[in-house]
Amino acid sequence: KQDEVPEEEIEQSITWLRGSRAELTAVTRGAKKGDIVEADIESFLGSEPIPGGKLMRDRFLLGESRYVPGFDDALMGKPAGEKLEFTLTAPQDYWETTLRGKEVRFVVVLASVHERKLPELTDAFASSLGPNIKTVADLRHHVREGLRQEKEDRERDRLRAKILEEIGRATKINIPEVMVQRILQGLVEETAHLTARADADKEKLREALRPKAESRVRAYLLIHAIAEKEGLEPTEDEIRVEMGRSNVDPKQARDYSYGIVRNQKVFEFLEHSH
Prior knowledge:
This protein has 274 residues and is α+β, with helices and mostly antiparallel strands. The protein contains 8 helices and 5 strands, in the order H-E-E-E-H-E-E-H-H-H-H-H-H. The protein has helices spanning 7-20, 71-75, 123-127, 136-170, 177-194, 202-230, 236-245, 250-273, and strands at residues 23-26, 36-45, 48-61, 83-89, 103-117. Strands 1, 2, 3, 4 and 5 form a 5-stranded antiparallel β-sheet that branches. Strand 2 (36-45) and strand 3 form a beta hairpin. The radius of gyration is 24 Å and the shape is globular.
């Protein structure tokens, strides 16, 4: 069922919360799985540096990094101050598509190793996480409800995207290039930042992300057109309520809240129409 949350997901979330409050202690022993390590990392294809592949003091949980499989293993047992050089082959399903199937050479200086001690899962720990949480049982309930809401939101967004896609296929709509370019620029910068590759090939990213940008513009134009046709104008009271929920810049809050309420009205109209 959509509203069921597996116990495994609840445990993972609680472990993450404990990890966020973990006590870190610098150690001189070799690094082991579960330690927090900092490293200066350079990566190469042959003798050529990979664009954006130089990271200083990159901090991650050993055993859970996003580097090529085998990277974390190479650091196991090594103390802070150690310099390593090794080569690994990126798998065909590696998240960084430009490196799939290629041999990547790494030069790593392990800057620090910290042992991580997670707080015990007690009522005292649970109550430190929020005013409405008093016990471990409260925490589990809070996490379960949060995960259930996330699942509902994802399913709702999926269904709404499907409705818009169906309408878009049946509707001829001109997509202004200037709007596509504006959205595309934001997507490119966001993707380069999230993948920690400021020097990523922006043209390749633009090409790959263009369909997504066009889809966003098409959705915006469709929502705008439906709102106008059906008179789905947000009221001042609805806008004020939404402004009270938002954390955006107060100067932008009204426009932002207007858009949120208008989108909600359009989707409710479409859901009742289907």
